């Protein structure tokens, strides 16, 4: 729910009776108008400009380092707390203005927008360097981590999928496989696994948070140290249901009687979940992170590797026990 302050600021936007300062631009005859007190409320730079010992007396104020379109986006964010932009270049320009006028919330919003909208798949080294320079210049640490993750991401599709041990503080392996993109954040997701109650259970590796979430016994569990990450492989998701085996399925771990667990995926309420497929239960189980697990029998996906190589956990388990409860 919006605060009363935000509601009131939105009411001020575009209202001529509240406008007492103007801004002009050398490349156009257009003028932008705003309310001095509202600008000072949101920016210490504007506060000093309008109410400091050397307060600005000119009206309009000439803006020579920012174009009209960018400055209009800048003012609209101050009033509306929303980004209204048409291109990534506009956002990059906006970062400069937000930094100049010390509006941290706007810098954060621009950083988040860039992370969610960069078409990383089309980037070359020069594109990465441009964004990384921007991130360094304005201390956009999350954007820098995001871009460096992709820039150094070099899994080998010609090798079969393998598991690499990760400990807290380690760099993310460059060979790690991105199996999905989180639709909410645009951060890539991986597959991780760790031992719980002597069972080796696969789940979602949240790269941003550097932790793995698994499901077990109707609950969700989290591990942020000493787990394994799935790397390399020519991977793809294949639709399945009722615990059916998928050709070349990646073996994610094992449960009681050394039953192999496959790696499953599905979208629940707009959020991507990665978990285990328990064939003897005829269903897939997914961690809802800090909440209880969810299980489904139909319309989930199983991870397969076109370079399939049997792992130490891929041998048959006791089929006579396949109807027993292993959890």
TrEMBL record:
Q: Where on the tree of life does the source sit, at the highest rank?
A: Eukaryota
Signal peptide bounds: none
Enumerate the spans annotated as BTB domain: 19-87
Full protein name: CSON002581 protein
């Amino acid at each position: 729910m919006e605060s009363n302050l935000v509601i009131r600021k939105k009411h001020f936007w575009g209202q001529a009776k509240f406008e007492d300062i103007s801004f002009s631009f050398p490349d156009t005859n257009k003028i932008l108008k705003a309310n001095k007190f509202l600008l000072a409320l949101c920016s210490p730079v504007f506060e000093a400009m309008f109410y400091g010992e050397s307060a600005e007396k000119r009206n309009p104020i000439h803006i020579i380092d920012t174009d009209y379109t960018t400055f209009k986006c800048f003012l609209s964010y101050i009033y509306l707390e929303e980004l209204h932009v048409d291109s990534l270049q506009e956002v990059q320009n906006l970062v400069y203005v937000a930094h100049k006028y010390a509006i941290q919330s706007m810098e954060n919003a621009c950083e988040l927008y860039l992370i969610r909208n960069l078409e990383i798949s089309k980037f070359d080294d020069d594109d990465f360097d441009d964004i990384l320079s921007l991130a360094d210049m304005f201390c956009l640490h999350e954007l820098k981590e995001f871009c460096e993750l992709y820039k150094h991401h070099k899994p080998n599709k010609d090798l079969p999928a393998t598991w690499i041990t990760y400990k807290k503080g380690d760099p993310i392996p460059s060979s790690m496989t991105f199996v999905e993109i989180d639709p909410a954040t645009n951060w890539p997701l991986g597959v991780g696994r760790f031992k719980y109650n002597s069972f080796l259970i696969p789940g979602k590796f949240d790269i941003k948070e550097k932790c793995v979430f698994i499901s077990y016994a109707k609950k969700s569990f989290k591990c942020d140290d000493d787990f394994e990450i799935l790397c390399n492989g020519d991977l793809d998701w294949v639709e399945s249901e009722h615990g059916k085996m998928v050709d070349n399925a990646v073996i994610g771990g094992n449960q009681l009687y050394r039953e192999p667990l496959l790696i499953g995926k599905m979208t629940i309420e707009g959020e991507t979940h990665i978990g285990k497929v328990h064939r003897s239960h005829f269903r897939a189980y997914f961690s809802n992170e800090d909440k209880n697990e969810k299980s489904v029998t139909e319309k989930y996906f199983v991870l397969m590797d076109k370079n399939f190589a049997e792992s130490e956990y891929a041998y048959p388990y006791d089929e006579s026990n396949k109807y027993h409860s292993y959890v």
